[in-house]
Amino acid sequence: MGNADYTYPSKSNADNGAHRVAVPPPQPFLKSLKYNLKETFFPDDPLRQFKNQPASRKFILGLQYFLPILEWAPRYSFQFLKSDLIAGITIASLAIPQGISYAKLANLPPILGLYSSFIPPLVYAMMGSSKDLAVGTVAVASLLIASMLGNEVNANENPKLYLHLAFTATFFAGVFQASLGLLRLGFIVDFLSHAAIVGFMGGAATVVCLQQLKGILGLERFTHSTDIMSVMRSSKRKPKFFWISAMAPLTSVILGSLLVYLTHAERHGVQVIGELKKGLNPLSITDLVFVSPYLLTAIKTGIITGVIAMAEGIAVGRSFAMFKNYHIDGNKEMIAFGMMNIAGSCTSCYLTAGPFSRSAVNFNAGCKTAVSNIVMALAVMITLLFLTPLFHYTPLVVLSAIIMAAMLGLIDYEAAIHLFKVDKFDFIVCMGAYVGVVFGNIEIGLVIAVSISLLRLLFFVARPRTLALGNMPNSKIYRNMEHYPNANQVPGVLILEIDAPIYFANSSYLRERITRWIDEEEDRLKSSGECSLQYVILDMSAVGNIDTSGISMLDELKKIIDRRAIKLVLANPGAEVMKKLDKAKFIENLGQEWIHLTVGDAVAACNFMLHTCKPNAVKAESEQWNNIV
Amino acid sequence: MGNADYTYPSKSNADNGAHRVAVPPPQPFLKSLKYNLKETFFPDDPLRQFKNQPASRKFILGLQYFLPILEWAPRYSFQFLKSDLIAGITIASLAIPQGISYAKLANLPPILGLYSSFIPPLVYAMMGSSKDLAVGTVAVASLLIASMLGNEVNANENPKLYLHLAFTATFFAGVFQASLGLLRLGFIVDFLSHAAIVGFMGGAATVVCLQQLKGILGLERFTHSTDIMSVMRSSKRKPKFFWISAMAPLTSVILGSLLVYLTHAERHGVQVIGELKKGLNPLSITDLVFVSPYLLTAIKTGIITGVIAMAEGIAVGRSFAMFKNYHIDGNKEMIAFGMMNIAGSCTSCYLTAGPFSRSAVNFNAGCKTAVSNIVMALAVMITLLFLTPLFHYTPLVVLSAIIMAAMLGLIDYEAAIHLFKVDKFDFIVCMGAYVGVVFGNIEIGLVIAVSISLLRLLFFVARPRTLALGNMPNSKIYRNMEHYPNANQVPGVLILEIDAPIYFANSSYLRERITRWIDEEEDRLKSSGECSLQYVILDMSAVGNIDTSGISMLDELKKIIDRRAIKLVLANPGAEVMKKLDKAKFIENLGQEWIHLTVGDAVAACNFMLHTCKPNAVKAESEQWNNIV
């Protein structure tokens, strides 16, 4: 890294045209505000199709936005019906046993599992955008409901109130989801990173398995029960084995029921489901509880379960859409989920979502549209109207086994290992969530996961990297000398790249760190007897923005540097940064001629002035200043 | 921005050496962890002076670290003493009336104001690093104490308990400050941005003024009283007027007392201070309250007042150190503040800090070292021992006037205007804090200020800018086409720069946004009949880091782009990004030959392949895919 290899570039600027760094023309505040709002809330520009359309067409497009079924139903063909029928019956065979199992997980009457696979899928088929999502209850949400409502109300002592609170929580979950979708605040779920969800789901699955084990072994239930569900990655399941896993739950139910029926095991202590009421969903709109103190619990439960269910559902929808090459509008999906849950809360259903496992089955079974959900709903309807007596003898242990089998699929240790290999911080997030859920409860796990994730973002801004750049041989390119060991230090010039915006959170740190870079460089030059430092070039390419604290920092840095008889030079400041520096009169203060378009230009300008080497003796004078008390 | 001006660069890579982008060699995790910890906690490398020193010297250096007086006292000269004497007496003349006033603001016995100007400055003189800071009570903290403790305990009904709680809060403030300093967590105060503090202080000053007005006009006190203090900027006061403002409080006290004494106004309803006990600070270590429920209030009050006082004190210290060209270690200062308050809490003092106004007076009066604080403390000691009867007749209205005069100086509307001009978001932070304090209370104002500030950081990462780059004429440089209108679009190539790290918070957004860029570009090319899009180059210069969500996003983006028969190219990925992409096998997937050191190299490589223009008809085939339901 010695400077013997450094060749001074010629002053000629012919091949870069000596472009000047300009201050961008001022933009009216409202215009840039409008732009920022659009980027935040409408990054995918969903209203693009509405442009230049007559009013009647706009009305139809609007209706189609909220009810996508109006868009694809006219193009529905018999071919699709065949595929959707098979897929629908397949997921129904999962939905029925799983629905009953998860309802018990939520300490709710098992029939609710069937109700929840009837109305919500119908609503989703009308309003949802995914062609592959299979709607139903999810283990995580069921566990969360049991846990959070269970803190307030004991399901055994007060089952009616507990039931009504579950409906109320579902209602608020729906309202929250729909609101987020309508207000286009969907990006909030982006703050739940994949790593956090892997840990979170794995932790809940662990807890559920342990809980079910206790049930299977006849031990008392856990008092804390947190339940996490689907993994967010596209699984690469072998399609042939998938039929086995798809049929397994229903088969176990049938075999188990037969066994109990034939041996009359229920009279010998084996617990069974028992009586399941016939008939469709009763209305429950009058059951919603809006009084304190329960209202707050219901709201809290609704919001947390709503967010988690939604995050999963949207990720699942997006994964399959990516795979099949169509597009999903996340905010539109949220509205669909919200309406689904609001409708469900009024028709004796509890929280539903789009679980990954069931959607994967739907996908592998060859579904073509959301009609598969309609087929499933019809199958469940038939079950509700005629087939509920069949479940009378189903042993609970079969339900536990079904739950455990689903849960084990959720402990995604492969994803965790991948995280460990690629990005250890993400692994920490994952483990933090896991540990929080297993040893604390689900809310703690969620808080830990989100906090650690956000901390990472804050940390990136608060402690940005500063890199020393060197010249790539035979070029005007300057790169990080640690990344490219063949890059050469430029004599008399220290080139630093700052890898983050300069905000209040990192201004002090940057000032200290850059000062330290300068100190260390001066020490090095002094001890090696080379030319003293004359220029410090700050490469601002990666500085996306700057605030007033950042501008103060640059001012202070300039003062510090000036005192040491060194010149500060800026290279490649972006548009936003230039605007602010101009308004703060920093450019006047520094001098326009010391702001360059590229590091190469800056170095050339410095070298032009740098023809004699300043011996280190000249510096001694400025150092005396430091000794004055 | 047409492509008629674009000249294809020649394939010759002679002047950039066709450098390859390498994956940096793997670093042991512990080594990079150690590096990161050092950057976070020791950015200024304070232990540098300890290197290569014998053990005895290390011990002395260590002692000097905690007691800087041992370092500068041996070099103290008579010259300094002269300056410090004048400065010390000047600030004493402020400290005495202000101390009494602020103590009343805190609903504490006025004598505490004098106690607090005796012991704490002595501690600071031994342990502090600033030569200009003048220690004493501050209006903000006094107001905060009145507000927060007042919620728990009424100062009029239960004055003894209130007093003891104030000591306890001061104790915890000291412990918190010292801990932060010892654990080198000082960067936490960096999260209170200058803009937030301007608004915060202005709001509190407003509230105090209104409160005092009510007192002066004889109206009832506000129940909410929040008090914010010093402005964090170096004021450019005209030194000649400063003597007037420095002498004014004491003069008013003397005149007011004389007036009341001569007219016996205190018998006619004019409230006066009354009896002030003679004698030095009594010990209060036994008065500290460590029982619930008050303990929690004391801790909370202590932490909040401690943080605010500390943030101000360090900023003030730094400003003057910058000005006079010496260095302050923020963490060391925190330890000094902490010990000052712990000692104060045991000697009947309440929270002290380094207020800007008094330090500015100290500075302008020509102080040379912290001995000015010692002189002030001695002056206060003399007052405590002999002069307290002089304050018997001081009317309270004079104290109110003193407070108001100090507060008006804190409503820094000039700073607010500057914020509005330079950075409107900072202005919003400022106003948010102001409104929160004035219309809510201080805690709300603080929470609002910090939240909005942090939101800005999160928003920067969650909604990064993506810029389209064009070629600067006659060069290989590519810059933002909005910033440089003379930059030319490259035909068949879309070059995008991403201005932030690619994390979970922005992965979805970036994928949508980049897809939209591609859609819009393809629409534009189709309608103008030009060559279709064949390459998308992502300039990763400003992408400081990437996590697993980001890598998934790049994977998905590549799939989307591949389907459209477009090639994805990366330019200038940094060391961290390359490492992660390599571990995640993305580089294998993309192809090493599609990662270039500069955008220029990438464009040259694309052009080499791009010699025939692909007509838009070829694209139709890939679009049919989108119509499949």
Reconstruct the topology from this structure.
The structure is a homodimer of 629-residue chains.
Chain A: H1 29-41, H2 55-66, H3 69-72, H4 78-105, H5 111-115, H6 119-127, E1 136-137, H7 139-152, H8 159-182, H9 194-216, H10 239-263, H11 294-324, H12 330-345, E2 352-353, H13 356-364, H14 371-387, H15 396-408, H16 413-422, H17 424-439, H18 442-462, E3 466-471, E4 478-480, E5 493-498, H19 504-528, E6 535-539, H20 548-563, E7 567-571, H21 575-583, H22 586-590, E8 595-596, H23 599-609, H24 619-624
Parallel strand pairs in A: 5-6, 6-7, 7-8
Antiparallel strand pairs in A: 1-2, 3-4, 3-5
Helix content of chain A: 55-70%
Oligomer: homodimer
The gross shape of chain A turns out to be elongated
Sheet with the most strands, sense and barrel status of chain A: 6 strands, mixed
Spans of at least 5 consecutive residues with low confidence of chain A: 9-17, 220-234, 617-629
Main sheet strand line-up of chain A? 4-3-5-6-7-8
Largest interface chains and counts = A-B, 104 and 104 residues
Helix count of chain A, per DSSP? 24
Distance between the termini of chain A: 38 Å
Radius of gyration of chain A: 32 Å
Rounded average pLDDT of chain A: 83
Structural class of chain A: mainly alpha
Total strands of chain A: 8
Strand content of chain A: under 5%
